[in-house]
Design brief:
Length: 195
């Protein structure tokens, strides 16, 4: 089942970027950069999915998710005008975070990311309909990030999970949430495209 899940995840993420490319070239439309964090979220997930399929450096892949979301998503919103230097700085911060792999920094930065995403969701509820339409995507991303952080925390607790039936349930719920997030991204994609 895990192999099918990985293939489905890769197909969903790849087709999301194919759709964005088709909107850009055929309809002369572009992704609304007010919501660039959603695009970067999808890019990080796609990089992780491709990395998993290449089957190299699993320990770095595992840590890549936990080290990159908390840095890239807030910075992409805070830095309004994106220039190449800012992207290079963000990549360097992620690389340093991966290199030092400080457990406490990752936990605190992810908690701050949850607050940041929750604040964005609440602020969108107070804005016009154009912003309120994006709330389901942000809620699904927040749930995705929370479960990703739970996996990270559980992996650092020294418990015998291998023979536990609880792991199977948790894995199923996690995969369901991940796929649901990517499907919601497809359903709401047109709301993030501007002419």
């Amino acid at each position: 089942m895990v192999d099918y899940y990985d293939i489905i995840e890769l197909l969903l993420l790849s087709s999301l970027f194919v759709r964005i490319g088709l909107y850009k070239w055929s309809c002369k439309s572009d992704f609304d950069f007010k919501f660039i964090d959603v695009l970067f979220f999808s890019i990080i997930c796609l990089v992780g999915s491709v990395w998993l399929r290449l089957n190299i450096g699993h320990e770095y892949l595992y840590n890549f998710f936990h080290c990159s979301f908390a840095i890239v998503l807030p910075l992409s919103v805070i830095w309004k005008r994106a220039v190449i230097e800012k992207y290079i700085i963000a990549m360097l911060l992620v690389a340093l975070n991966l290199y030092f792999m400080n457990l406490y920094f990752i936990i605190i930065s992810n908690l701050l990311l949850f607050i940041f995403m929750a604040h964005r969701i609440v602020s969108f509820t107070l804005k016009p309909r154009y912003f309120r339409e994006k709330i389901p995507v942000y809620v699904s991303i927040l749930v995705f990030l929370i479960f990703t952080q739970l996996i990270f925390l559980i992996s650092h607790i020294k418990l015998e999970w291998k023979n536990s039936q609880l792991v199977g349930y948790f894995l199923f719920v996690t995969q369901f949430i991940y796929l649901t997030t990517f499907i919601i991204g497809h359903v709401y994609l047109r709301r993030f495209i501007v002419d």
